[in-house]
Write a structure and sequence with these properties.
By secondary structure, this protein is an all-alpha fold. It is built from 6 helices and no strands. The longest helix has 24 residues.
Length: 136
């Protein structure tokens, strides 16, 4: 069944657009580009993240250009898949929204547990970003 790979692509793409930048490491080697929803909810953090991203891109223009191209390719691929099967795409979007809302509710109910999960995700994300480096 080809649903799982497509869902993973939607999940990855949706995470960028749905503001999961709050799950990313604050001292990450590559500052995240904030999403619109994240910025609405956290204007101060959003500005800080933008400043970090701008500084990173000033120091690493080739890396930023590469990341931009990768995202453009992923968006184009996702758009093509959604045009081919809009119902399936909408179902995946709804599922992502449901999961996001569920997570927000869990975080509201238990902020300490939520912060712990965020830290785990930051560490996991940091490991993927720099596989050859050790955490300092």
């Amino acid at each position: 069944m080809r649903l799982r790979p497509a869902l993973l692509i939607v999940a990855a793409t949706a995470s960028l657009f749905l503001g999961t930048t709050s799950l990313q490491a604050e001292e990450s080697s590559v500052p995240p580009k904030p999403g619109r929803e994240f910025c609405k909810e956290n204007p101060g953090k959003c500005e800080e993240a933008r400043a970090k991203r701008k500084a990173f891109c000033a120091e690493n223009p080739e890396k930023c250009a590469e990341q931009r191209e990768q995202m453009k390719a992923k968006r184009a691929e996702m758009k093509e898949k959604c045009q081919a099967d809009p119902e399936k795409c909408e179902q995946m979007k709804q599922e992502m929204r449901r999961k996001r809302d569920e997570m927000k509710a869990r975080c509201k109910a238990d902020p300490a547990k939520c912060e712990e999960m965020k830290q785990e995700m930051r560490q996991k994300h940091q490991g993927k970003k720099s596989p050859g480096k050790t955490a300092e």
